[in-house]
Amino acid sequence: MTQREILQQSPQALIEKYPFLSAFFEGQHWMSKLNPEQSLADLFALIDDEHAEDHAFDVQEFISQLMDFIAEMKAFIGNETFQVHQLSILPGTNKSGEPEGFEKLVFEPRTITSIVGPTGSGKSRLLADIEWVAQGDTQTQRRILINEELPDNAWRFSGNRKLVAQLSQNMNFVMDLTVTEFLALHAKSRMVTDSGDLIMRIISAANELAGEKFSPDTAITALSGGQSRALMIADTALLSQSPVVLIDEIENAGIDRKKALEILTGEDKIVLMATHDPLLALMADQRIVIKNGGIHRIIKTSAEERTLLSELEKADLKQQQMRTALRSGAVLQRDMYL
Amino acid sequence: MNLVTISGPPSSGKTAVILKAAENLKKRGLKVGAVKFDCLHTDDDLAYEKAGIPVKKGLSGSLCPDHYFVSNIEAVAAWGMEEGFDLLVSESAGLCNRCSPYIKEIKAVCVIDNLSGINTPRKIGPMLRMADIVVITKGDIVSQAEREVFAAGVYAVNPGAVIMHVNGLTGQGAYELSTLLFDERTKLDTLKGKKLRFSMPSALCSYCLGETRIGESYQMGNVRKMDIKNN
Q1: A172 and B142: CB-CB below 8 Å?
Q2: Range(s) of the domain holding residue B141
Q3: Please, which residues have CB within 8 angstroms of residue B77's CB and are 6 or more apart in sequence?
Q4: ipTM of predicted assembly, 2 dp
Q5: Mutant choice from B100, B109, B148, B180 vs A, greatest count of A C-beta within 10 A
Q6: Which CATH number among 2.40.50.140, 3.40.50.1110, 3.40.50.300, 3.30.530.20 corresponds to the domain A84-327?
Q7: What does the pLDDT read at residue B91?
């Protein structure tokens, strides 16, 4: 639409044509007492200098923001460019300036990559390079490709489209809402209409992960640590826009970690996980060893490691059963868990 | 010299973000200076000094801090040029959510934090709406969902801005921000004649001039009444 055509439309007609505009118009307090069925041109005519100044309103600025918003949202919705089928890293250098020893590191949806290395070795820089879609313009000189091509700049600059979603141990819910209200708000910000079914799916997925179930009416701030983590994981898997999920350790307490990873990969996410927990690290398809600021090695999880993993999983299962038993007040007996 | 104006609500993390970004610029051999505008009190100048960044401090006291900013920024910019800075960062707190101390053709950054509440982007006026770059802080302590909801709120208010997440404690995102703050091709000679992006609110009533008594007969000048009946 040209500027002239837009001016002939009323806010209401615009929202009907582009439902995503409701969020935009909600923020326009200058028109809160005006009739949204009138055309924008007519509404502008009603505004005198005092009204404009009170609401810090400027016609030209408003029109250009409205047109930006429409153009950008149209570009995003249903646009194949923003489907990520593959993410790859072309090598840069480590802190000493030596080239990294790999040709191309590839991440695909539904796969898990663990990242290991001591604190300060450059794990955060690697993740930041991915998030910033580095193009040889960071310290490491790495380059990120999306779908084997140079990525669209929108990945870097748009507030509405971020490549990486993050889950870390010290995150908390801070909003004063129930689980259902909270998920509805998240769905709305993602322009998901008719979110009822999706919300129920997220809650039931979260309840499968958490040791203790919670109801849809629980306040999110009243959830236990394990429940919060479970809800964050289920919500990130099913409702986050970002194709890459970065996990900074998942604590052992009160959450089924294997299932958590299954939910994420099941939703076509590329999962990156910074961890030194053998149970998690070996669940990955590959692991990256970081040393001196560079990617030192890329290791495919070996058959032997997979055997080790299944032993670890048995031990982990035992622990979980004991935890459940303790919670219900049982007395533990050796032969129950052999 | 480049000049960047950075504003944002109190305690949103402006100073921490600037210090982390400046660290990256200094590594590139660039000379960074700062000026901090505040109302009654600030210790942020000490934080800049500790980081080895030359700083000037301006306290507006009983004056409107944004008016104070406009009246002083030209002289501060001249100081920055004399000192030979590559980048001068002007930091000011947004206090009444109505003003934006942003200047046309001068890069403007707004810093707000994830903890400030979901409706905050809508409440902050031109300071957020007219910024070129919006930096969202404190993302490390809230959930991914809350970060997305908050960023969507910012986006709806200012779709044209670059929206970035920066962690003022760890510096995550600060390098990336720093690349946007300094541009070799930009050269500022003087601020004289440049214009604010938006007018400051009109004022000048008897209370602006020191009146303290309450009552209709003491109110003169630009006074406005609430409509209590039809409110």
Answers
A1: yes
A2: 2-201
A3: B1, B3, B88, B188, B190, B191
A4: 0.81
A5: B148
A6: 3.40.50.300
A7: 94
